[in-house]
Amino acid sequence: MDIDPRRLRVLHEVARRGGVMRAAEALHLTASAVSQQLALLEREVGLALIDRSQRRAALTPAGRVLAGYAERIDEELAEARRELIGFTERLAGPVSIAAFPTVIRHLLVPVLGKMAERHPQITPRIRELYGSPALRELRLGTVDLALTEQDADMAAPARQSIISHPLYVDEYRIVVPPSWTEVPRDVADLADAPWVAGPPDQACGRAMERLATLHGFTPRRVHFVQEFPPTLALVAAGHGVAIVPSLALLDVPDGEVVVTGITDVGARRLDAVTRLGRARSGEPDPVQAVVIAALREAADELTVRLGERWTAR
Question: Can you give the residue ranges of the HTH lysR-type domain (predicted)?
């Protein structure tokens, strides 16, 4: 029985993507081409691998067994690529990075410049993805590294097959409209204020919940906004107060919003997340390690910039 490993990859994608159409998109093939490869693989093994009696293609028991072997082969090949990098004199190749806007703006853009100077053979490719979608693509192997956020007062969630590498602790700030005649001195002064709230599954949304619980008040959420620029625009126009990370304030002109001196707001933790290799040592491959080191260097520079900004105030 001869099995073409290229067809195993097609079966692997169908299994992990949950269907022929999604597998075709991931492989940059037509659905017809994927179906043809599956039919040829079935002919090679002499067994039905896809249950075509359902509306959505599903794997048969034999298909699931073979897909499991295909996954292990894919992991072995990925590990081989990682180890072979160590034999090259110069690090090279593409590295796909999933990240969200503030991190792209203030960490990744500087890193791209450093990488171009120091490691011109490495080609970073940025994808704007946030939260669960970014981690899903990391597990699927379509991105090599994901930048994530987590409220620093919450324990990092246990995740199988991936590992987090700490980058930066980004302090939260409470901002209020410039039209307010008195700047709040503590959280109690904001108990009746209108809030521009972030999604509850994002770090700032969780920070608001924690702050409200700690101080015993129910925030009056008037606006629900996901991104920081519109959040800050609403605050600047006098429509509410908000919790934002320090990074989000770097591009805001002085005086557009008022940053309070309230200090017990907490912080978010920014991590670089990679897949565990076959050895499950937790060490990123050499190319990923170079990117993570550059990110940490950029994070250290940000700490200095933010310190100077708050000192100037």
Answer: 3-60
| Count of domains for the chain | 3
Residue whose structure tokens are 């309070």: 260
Residue 205: beta bridge partners? Answer: none
Answer whether residue 228 is part of any domain: yes
Checking 307-310 for CB contacts under 8 A at 24+ apart, the result is 309/249, 309/250
Residue 276 belongs to a domain: yes
At 16-68, the pLDDT tens digits run 788 888 888 877 788 888 888 888 888 888 888 888 777 677 888 888 888 88
Our measurement of the distance from residue 185's CA atom to the centroid of its chain's CA atoms, rounded to an integer in Å, reads 34
- Tell me whether residue 165 is in a domain: no
Structural domain that includes position 223: 170-268
CA-based end-to-end distance of the chain: 73
Which of 26, 56, 85 marks a domain boundary? 85
Residue 252 sits in the same domain as residue 274: no
Residue ranges for the chain with pLDDT beneath 70 = 1, 55, 81-90, 155-160, 277-282, 308-313
Contact partners, residue 207, CB within 8 Å, separation at least 6:
151, 153, 172, 243, 265, 266, 268
